[in-house]
Amino acid sequence: MRTQIIAGNWKMHKTEEEAFQLASDLKQRLKDVKGVKAVICPPFTSLPSVKRAIENSPILLGAQNMHWEEKGAYTGEISPPMLLTTGCKYVILGHSERRSLFFETDEFVNLKVKSALKFNLFPIICVGEKLDQREANKTEEIVENQVRGAFKDLGAQEAERTVIAYEPVWAIGTGRTATPQQANKVHLFIRELLLSEFGKECAEKINILYGGSVKPENSKELLDMPEIDGALVGGASLDAESFEKIIKSAINS
Ligand code: PGA
């Protein structure tokens, strides 16, 4: 049985002080939560203060991106050891906004995944098709290429330390969610791909999260699907009450 993971992607929201307040509020609300992993991913600038805010709580910290090198002349970038010193355990990689707005390729995502694993960070690897690709019946082809690209050269022992987030691009920030059946079908496709690449033991360990307009109103029915092992939540993770409700809906799912 995989423990559900609910990760909040705060994107480019919250100043340091606002982030501290939201994290402190969540710590209060989630202090007794068991049986689900709650992860929050604030902007880089707020990682140290959010770390302080969630000390002695079950909430885990993640980042939204990183460079694959340990250090060097990469102006504006953040390295894996820097994330580790802020208490990060997870890092979101290959989010569709990074792919489309900042031209991240599968090769970049692969370098980052390998680096995250080397530094003992759990990568949350995002994949998902755009609307025109879904309408052209290319969902599986796109998702397969992204998964194969991200996992290139990895062995089963590395692959089992990853998390995948299936996020159909047309559902991100649009209020339009994939139906639980639509999402589950793609998750099953990804699981079978992992099974053929890495074997059953590894494939069954990998959490596959769904992302795209997850809210308290739809989280339970999504999380109840057999192949959905959690959620990557954008907008609704910026509100403590909504995020709390989504996390609580994951208990026993
Ligand atoms: P959303 O974002 O929940 O606001 O749709 C999800 C994501 O981009 O990870």
What does this structure look like?
The protein has 253 residues and is of the alpha/beta class. 42% of the residues lie in helices and 16% in strands. The protein is built from twelve helices and eight strands. It has helices at 16-29, 47-53, 80-85, 96-101, 106-118, 131-135, 139-150, 156-159, 180-198, 200-203, 219-223, 240-250; strands spanning 4-9, 36-41, 60-63, 88-93, 122-127, 163-166, 207-211, 230-233. It has an eight-stranded parallel beta barrel with strand order 1-2-3-4-5-6-7-8, surrounded by five helices. Helix 1 (16-29) links the parallel strand 1 and strand 2. Helix 1 packs parallel to helix 2, helix 5 (106-118) packs across helix 7 (139-150) and helix 7 packs across helix 9. The longest helix is centred in the last third of the chain and has 19 residues, at 180-198. It is globular. The structure holds 2-phosphoglycolic acid.
Give the helix/strand layout:
Elements: E1 4-9, H1 16-29, E2 36-41, H2 47-53, E3 60-63, H3 80-85, E4 88-93, H4 96-101, H5 106-118, E5 122-127, H6 131-135, H7 139-150, H8 156-159, E6 163-166, H9 180-198, H10 200-203, E7 207-211, H11 219-223, E8 230-233, H12 240-250
Parallel strand pairs: 1-2, 1-8, 2-3, 3-4, 4-5, 5-6, 6-7, 7-8
Helix pairs in contact: 1-2, 1-12, 5-7, 7-9
The chain binds 2-phosphoglycolic acid.
